[in-house]
């Protein structure tokens, strides 16, 4: 029997919720095939990948630790995505946020003031917003494509970080390693669960999830951005300003990415290093879409993506799989999600053979 | 252009004024703040967002009427306003939470007309308000426009249906080949004269051959 794709009269609500689950299922099956090809026992691989990393308290802490930046960034990005503002530069905004917040910590490296950490978080958000303001300005004034500009700026941000930790901000007592000073106690996010690395950044992220939900569902600006994303011309008719949507979409994403970056350097890392993120800014794009651009969906999706990071690390250690396995799983997940999302608007219809 | 979706330079030869105030350079939001309302030609996608509910579509232009407080949408007020549009204009629909695209063209048009009129505008621009609408709904929309006129609200009706214009307009003018004709009282003119005007033959029309390309004639 043959099938053809047929447009649904209405986008399927059910399918839009099922699609991420099906995509996860297909990704798991794909992983099964991979492990067979690599000559591994599939069950052992699964256990090592998805169960072993979180079967103790420390593992659960790591799950929350890695989910924190992902949900922070994804909630911010999703607000822009809803208004058709495509910020792909969260990785760079995360980096600049981390740099700006760290600047304060390094300048007051002997301080024990309670104001240091809030100041760092604020500067982290401002740094991310500054970096996002560049594509926003170029888009609103010269109609430059924000996808390209924000993406390219990621590399610029990483090079600035590289320069700082190897040059002016290198630890003077650090034997020439490319690292900054270790932040003081007052410049480090407190641990919220004994025996883990889970830090107070999680509370910030959860607050941002709730604020994000209020913004999207209840605020008039969130409504305007939704209209701009759904029907550009209707937004123009109502007098909603497109440039304002672009600025807001990028700045909100930049702010949350900047806070996420600060949370990394003031959390598990505790200093500036040449590499401060294993691609959270990119993975958060996948998280945003797997979470259906909804703050609470993103909360769940960030836990899933966090597990993929942990599983990838565990698979390297336990099974000797290459480190690329995390990236492969992220890519496969996005691939299957985009594929299954097709069935939100289309369905398969069997083609009846016509009798001549 | 008159609705403000495209703004104009300040120093136009024929400035656009609203109640004596220069509005040519203002955008749609600023003009609406001054009491302009607009029923656009396209219903789905311009006058209403297809995927959103009627309540959300009421908010689209009616948000000035106390529907937003501290930046938050007052859902109760929005729903009450949408219900008034539905009740006063006999919109057949599945309630305020029905998606705009689930309505028939005529019912959605009645909803949009209702939304614009119930905001008590000073000036209403209506482009093809009865286009594609069933006879009953069209008559109701025309009657509403006449009622508004009685209340002293200025209405600019843009239509390609001459009968409709002769039925409800006070004065009529034609845009043909990029030029605006003088306005004439409906009682002083007739279909034949307006027909001539629509082909560009009106007093004061430029007659040189270097005219802009032919445009669809619009009676105003």
Uncertain runs of chain B are: 208-220
Count of β-strands of chain A: 2
Which spans of chain A of ≥5 residues are poorly predicted at pLDDT below 50? none
Look at the structure and give the mean pLDDT of chain A.
92
Query: How do the strands of the widest beta sheet of chain A line up side by side?
Result: 1-2
Whole-number radius of gyration of chain B?
A: 19 Å
Using the CA coordinates, give the radius of gyration of chain A: 22 Å
Structure notes:
The complex is a heterodimer of chains A (356) and B (220). Chain A is 70% helix and 3% strand. Chain A contains 13 helices and 2 strands. In chain A, helix 4 packs across helix 11. With 220 residues, chain B is of the alpha+beta class. In chain B, the strands form 5 sheets. A 3-stranded parallel β-sheet of chain B has the order 3-6-7. A 3-stranded antiparallel β-sheet of chain B has the order 10-9-12, covered by helices on one side. In chain B, strands 1-2 form a two-stranded antiparallel sheet. Classes of the chains: A mainly alpha (356), B alpha+beta (220). Chains A and B meet through helix 8 and helix 9 of A and helix 1, helix 2 and strand 5 of B.
Identify the notable features of this structure and list them briefly.
heterodimer, A: 356 residues, mainly alpha, two-stranded antiparallel ribbon, 13 helices, 2 strands, 70% helix, globular, B: 220 residues, alpha+beta, three-stranded parallel sheet, three-stranded antiparallel sheet, 7 helices, 12 strands, 33% helix, disordered C terminus
């Amino acid at each position: 029997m043959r099938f053809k794709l047929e447009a649904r009269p209405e986008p399927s609500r059910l399918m839009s919720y099922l699609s991420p689950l099906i995509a996860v299922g297909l990704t798991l099956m794909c992983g099964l095939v991979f492990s067979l090809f690599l000559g591994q026992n599939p069950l052992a691989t699964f256990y090592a990948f998805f169960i072993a990393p979180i079967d103790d308290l420390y593992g659960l802490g790591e799950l929350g630790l890695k989910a924190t930046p992902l949900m922070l960034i994804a909630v911010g990005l999703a607000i822009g995505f809803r208004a058709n503002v495509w910020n792909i530069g969260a990785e760079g905004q995360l980096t600049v946020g981390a740099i700006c917040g760290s600047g304060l910590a390094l300048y007051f490296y002997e301080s024990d003031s309670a104001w240091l950490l809030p100041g760092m978080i604020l500067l982290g958000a401002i740094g991310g917003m500054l970096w996002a303001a560049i594509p926003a300005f170029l888009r609103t004034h010269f109609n430059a494509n924000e996808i390209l500009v924000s993406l390219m700026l990621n590399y610029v941000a990483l090079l600035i970080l590289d320069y700082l930790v190897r040059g002016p901000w290198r630890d003077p007592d650090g034997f020439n390693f490319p690292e900054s000073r270790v932040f003081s106690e007052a410049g480090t996010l407190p641990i919220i669960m004994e025996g883990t690395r889970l830090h107070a950044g999680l509370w910030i992220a959860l607050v941002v999830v709730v604020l994000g939900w209020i913004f999207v569902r209840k605020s008039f600006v969130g409504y305007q951005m939704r209209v701009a994303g759904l029907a550009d011309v209707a937004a123009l008719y109502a007098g909603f300003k497109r440039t304002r949507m672009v600025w807001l979409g990028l700045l909100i994403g930049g702010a949350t990415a900047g806070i996420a970056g600060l949370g990394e350097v003031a959390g598990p890392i505790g200093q500036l290093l040449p590499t401060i993120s294993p691609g959270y800014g990119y993975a958060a794009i996948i998280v945003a879409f797997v979470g259906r651009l909804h703050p609470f969906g993103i909360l769940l999706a960030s836990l899933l993506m966090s597990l993929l990071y942990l599983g990838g690390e565990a698979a390297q250690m336990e099974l000797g799989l290459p480190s690329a396995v995390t990236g492969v799983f992220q890519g496969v997940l996005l691939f299957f999600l985009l594929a299954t999302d097709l069935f939100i608007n289309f369905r398969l219809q069997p083609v009846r053979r016509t009798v001549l | 252009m008159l609705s403000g979706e495209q703004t104009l330079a300040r120093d136009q030869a024929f400035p656009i004024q609203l109640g004596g105030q220069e509005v040519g350079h203002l955008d749609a939001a600023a003009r609406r703040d001054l009491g302009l309302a607009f029923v656009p030609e396209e219903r789905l996608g311009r006058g209403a967002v297809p995927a959103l509910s009627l309540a959300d579509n009421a908010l689209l232009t009616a948000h000035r009427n106390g529907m937003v407080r501290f930046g938050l949408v007052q859902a109760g007020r929005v729903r009450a306003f949408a219900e008034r549009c539905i009740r006063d204009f006999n919109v057949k629909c599945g309630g305020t939470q029905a998606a705009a695209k689930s309505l028939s063209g005529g019912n959605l048009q009645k909803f949009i007309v209702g939304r614009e009129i119930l905001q008590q505008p000073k000036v209403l621009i209506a482009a093809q308000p009865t286009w594609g609408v069933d006879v009953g709904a069209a008559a109701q929309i025309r009657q509403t426009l006449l009622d508004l006129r009685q209340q002293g609200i200025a209405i600019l009706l843009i239509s390609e249906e001459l009968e409709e214009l002769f039925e409800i307009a006070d004065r009529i003018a034609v845009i043909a080949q990029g030029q605006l004709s003088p306005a004439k009282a409906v009682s002083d003119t007739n279909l034949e004269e307006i027909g001539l005007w629509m082909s560009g033959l009106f007093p004061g029309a430029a007659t040189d051959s270097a005219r802009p390309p032919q445009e669809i004639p619009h009676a105003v």
